[in-house]
Each structure stands twice: as C-alpha cells, then as structure tokens.
Predict the structure of Ribulose-phosphate 3-epimerase.
Amino acid sequence: MIKLAPSILSADFSQLKDAVQILDKGGAHLVHIDVMDGHFVPNITLGPPVIKSLRKHTKLPFDVHLMISNPDQYLESFHEAGADILTVHAEACTHLHRTVQQIKKLGMKAGVALNPATDLSVLKYILPDIDMVLIMTVNPGFGGQTFIPQCLDKIRELSKYIQENQLPVEIEIDGGANLDNAEEIIKAGTNILVAGSAVYDTPNPVETIQEFIKVFSKFGE
C-alpha cells in the first residue's frame, strides 16, 4: 500500500490544529512531523510539547522525523508526546543500533533517515532491525525545495536490496514530492511519500490529498 504523509512543516503554524484535522478529512495515512534543532539542520521548528498538544486532535499515526543532534536524549520525550514512528538520521547517531533498539523498546516503530549524499552502505547492518528508511530527496532544513533526481537511483537500489533480502522495511521519501512526480517516485520503489508544500500551499489541501490518493490507486493496495 502506498501512503501519503503530509508534512505540517508547510502548514500555518498558528493553525496547526486545523492543519492536522485537514489530513483526516482528506484521507491521508500519516501526519509527518519534522523536528529541527537549528544545529543538525539550519532551522528550528517544534518539539514534544507541540506534538503532545496535537495528539488529541487526530487518530492518524504521528510520523516524527528527528533532524536533530544527539537524538538519544529525547527519544522518551517524543514517545510520551505521542510519536508512533520515530526516525533518526544515521548521520546524527554515534551508536545507531543502540538508538534503534531504544526506539523499539519504547514501543515505537523505528526509522533511519539518510541525507542525499549519504551512501546506502551505512544501512547494511541495521536494515533487519528497522521498520522504515527515509530517503531525503532534498537537503534537510527547509520545506518547498526541488526534488533531487539522482535520489531515484538511490531509491531503486534500496528497493532492490530490500526485495532480494525479503525485509519488511518500508521506503519513505521526504522532499520535493508533488502530483507531477509522484508516479515516478513510486515506480522507483517508494512506499510512503511525504508532501508538505505540495499539499498545504494549494487552494484546497483536502482535494489535493485526494488527488494524491487517486495517483496511488494506480498501484493497487
């Protein structure tokens, strides 16, 4: 099943409750929440208190993407705030396996994100232990960027490896996905598309979500 995870990074931060409820109305599958610390990436967004305040306004799973340094310090805080999937960057984790095990011990699904220039080889010995790989298809830090086309080869290579080794790992992409390139991204092997400005910067985000789902329906359940 192909899933849509709209990113509230592109929503109006003064109307986050409405932004989350729009996703329910449109039929989105996940709420993607980008957490940035101004250190690992050049931007600052939100943290556990805001996530916790949003949790009561939707039953959709919270797909929390930590673009922060020293994520181990905050795993429990994000669990308590309501994260269902917690993704950390391989580049930010000194002991990635330990971090992944702690996420799963807390009862969350574990994801590992890679920046555009990070090689897939860093995942070789962790793939059997994780639920999802997040391929950054823009350089992290800001919404509204253009998809980096070279990342399609990266997605294809990862998808092939996962299939050949029969691993139950989903592939999520984050950055630059829109209605024009969604099919190409899915064909490369993506299971979950994060879309921020492609949803929230449109006249009717609910209808836009439904348009994405129509595209997904071409690929079956």
User: Anything to note?
Assistant: Residues 3-217 form a domain with the TIM Barrel fold (CATH 3.20.20.70). The beta strands are 3-6, 31-36, 62-67, 85-89, 109-114, 132-136, 170-174, 192-195. Helices lie at 16-26, 48-55, 75-81, 96-105, 151-164, 182-187, 197-200, 205-217.
